[in-house]
Design brief:
Elements (H helix, E strand, L loop, with lengths): L8 H30 L1 E3 L4 E2 H9 L5 H8 L9 H13 L11
Antiparallel strand pairs: 1-2
């Protein structure tokens, strides 16, 4: 076993693979967070996507609550652009959308 202790080569490979997959998942989460800080959540008001996510994680359950916490929705489009994005984020988090609870 190449002098690497009592661990057979196959088990060593599985351990390395498991560590690599965990590392890859961490990098993916970090990439998503960085992108959320760069992507617009509301173009009209200049609010970034991560602010919308923060509002939802803090307990907002519908567009009105997200709008109250972030200041979106009263720009030149009247919430048409960011409304769809908020509904998508709420659905992803299993929160209410259009007055109905997600299954």
């Amino acid at each position: 076993w190449s002098g690497r202790g009592d661990v057979p080569p196959r088990e060593r490979w599985n351990e390395k693979t498991t560590r690599a997959v965990g590392r890859e998942k961490r990098w993916k989460r970090m990439d998503e967070e960085i992108l959320a800080r760069l992507k617009p959540g509301c173009i009209c008001k200049g609010v970034r996507l991560f602010r919308l996510k923060e509002a939802i994680e803090a307990g907002a359950t519908d567009f009105a609550q997200v709008a109250a916490r972030t200041g979106i929705g009263d720009g030149s489009c009247g919430g048409r652009r960011c409304g769809a994005r908020v509904e998508e984020l709420l659905a992803r988090h299993g929160r209410q959308t259009d007055g109905e609870e997600e299954p």
